[in-house]
Write a structure and sequence with these properties.
By secondary structure, this protein is an alpha/beta fold. Strands 1, 4, 7, 8, 11, 12, 13, 14, 18 and 19 form a 10-stranded mixed β-sheet that branches. Strands 22-21-20-23-24-25 form a 6-stranded parallel β-sheet, sandwiched between helices. Strand 11 and strand 12 (224-234) form a beta hairpin. It is globular and about 90 Å long. It starts with 5 loop residues before the first helix and ends in a 7-residue tail after the last helix.
Amino acid sequence: MSVSNSSEMERALIDKLMIHFGKTAEEASETEMLKACALVIRDRMAIQEVETRKKAVREHKKQVHYMSLEFLMGRSLMKNAFNLHLLDQLKEALEHLGFNASDIFEAEPDAALGNGGLGRLAACYLEAMTTLEIPATGYSICYELGIFKQKIIDGEQVELPDNWRSIGDAWLLTKPEESEEVLFGGTVNESWENGKAHITLEGATKVTAVPCDMIIAGYNTRHTNVLRLWDAKSSVPVDMSYYSRGEYVKAVEERAMAESIAKVLYPEDKHSEGKSLRLKQQYFFVSATMQSIVRKHLGTYGTLDNFHEKNVIQINDTHPTLCIPELMRIFMDEHNMSWDKAWYITSRSVAYTNHTVMWEALERWSQELIERILPRIWQIVKEIARRWQTKCEEYFHDTEKVHNTAIIWGGEVRMANLCVAAGMAVNGVSGLHSDILKNDVFKNFYSMTPEKFHNVTNGIDHRRWLAEINTGLDGFIRDYLGGDKYLTHASALEKLDKLAGGKEAQLRIEQIKTANKKSFADYMYKEQGVIIDPNSIFDVQAKRLHEYKRQLLNVIHIIYLYQKLHDDRDFIKTPQTFLFGAKAAPGYAVAKRIIRLINSLADCIDKDPVCKDRLKVVFMENYRVSLAEHLMPAAEVSEQISTAGKEASGTGNMKFMMNGALTIGTLDGANVEMHELIGDDNMFLFGLHADEVNALKSSGYDPMGIYNSDERVRNVLDNMRAGFGDGESYEDIYNRLIIGGNGSPADEFMLLADFDSYVNAQKRMAETYLDRARWNDMSIHNIARSGLFAADRAIAQYADNIWHVEHKSI
């Protein structure tokens, strides 16, 4: 049914309510209306998806397969309606039917199938691939529970289940006829016939992978793509004899074991059961995916000889690494390929994106675990490793370099090394990050195959993270540019640079930001009961809680301001509100302690009359995509303060920049490219550079020396050690900075080394804020030069330099 105007949309919604819920619009609840909206939009996309798929098959187009254990999709209703040019019609229809459109949009739960930047990036990229009309499919797991809901109780993080599928299922098309079987355990059996080995797995546990497809709409195109989410089901029917004997738990035990694979994102892996489940998750989704890709390819071409010419498999971080030996297994065991032919095709089909330079974050799996759970995969990995090590020995004649590049060493399988050895391309996600990969992390690999290495700086979906969430700024841009061309050609934003210095543009930018701040203050009061002064500076640090991201440096500076206020109440000229949004991994004890510290400090400041109308700290509970969509347009200061050389890229920095916030940051990740674009005059740079960090560590970094010599640092840390009047001492964090412990050196991430520089950057920011014309000009320059960070640009680079697929011009 056509829904090209509000009347047709209204009729479609009424029909959906009657057919699916047996209700009229007057009888329907908000949840039922939300589902009806989703079904109407999904129907439109489903038709376009069939057309897209048929066209790709008919024209024998190369397919991109984007594999990521995370896809942080957020809400879909407004996004899909926006991309399909149906948002206005949908809003009008809802209002006419007696519903508040904003309430309906807010009722949708986030599809929180990710933990942070990795999953958000994957979501942005899938939308950009669709908009650029690249035939692509994303693959992940259909987690029953996404990343946890965060509740702050007595200042501490408590994790609650996040059952997004209760409503989110409306977006999914389940396709049981395209299910695949995944095998775990068992014994490898090898037999020979006509001189060829035949490999079977006997006694294995079978789990059925059922595809649940989420359709992705592109902007201003009928092209659609799919995010295929695999759900786990038992392949064994329930044994009714257990019921007859009263053994009810045993009757469903095997089913529950199978379905646990898709139960939760990132199960805790500090125990053997958690490690086993994580490995099963990774193999489950790559095995199902590889089987599905091969099956569809054979259905189109009837041969696997051209598989690498018609498919490219992009590994997003190391979680999908097992797709390499799994593809080899399928080629050899199921299609009788020789090792050399299977390797030739596999190594020309797979590309790898690295997302970290931290050795502890590069996945390693124990040989014993892989051998026990995935015996055939272990055999293949072992043979890949043997052949690769022989090649390295012949190339280097250096034991240390062979050790560094080995896939298996010391009883561990190094997943990143397997990716680099087998991949046709390896890329970092910012200029600095890619240089570190080439010159440090993968230095020896780079010396062998420099042609493999690329840089593709991350990008964001500017249609969502600017136009959709910041309608005031979108209107301003359209007015000046004379239309919405920037939505498909982000480089058009550069023209806004000419507006700097103009009083009318400065005033308009000021008005837009002020309105957004008031809106966010209202939102936070409604959601969390927190009162925020919209006239204060909104200084934001919103990202996953990790020590290298240095939320603690931000906290230390706030304690410094708090102490200075007690010395001089006029020390802070403009009221400041520091906003934190962060989730800590459930097993990351230090990160959870930092959250407790932030909340202790916030409570202390709230109760102190000296701080009234001067200083406030707010911890935004349950930070997620939908909260970020309210926050980004309101932010004025963006804290991007990671230790130089530790952040691969970041994408929050890009979102804040695009919405006109000014950055306080180190030269780390994509901040480097940001600095190249806007210079010292339009951001507040501070801190050691990556090479200086390494040099200081090598020469013997002494945080105790800084503590003893800098009275400010000593006062702040002593205050932290004593606590903030709630009976909680933070001596453990104090010790971590001054003494170290549990295998970590003192102040591992150089907070105290950068403290003085950070204080000065904050001072420059506060002084600049008083000059409203200059501040608004800086904001305009940031917006104007943010187009480089559009996901469309990044995907075009992947398409041109790595995937070699055609795409729409940007």
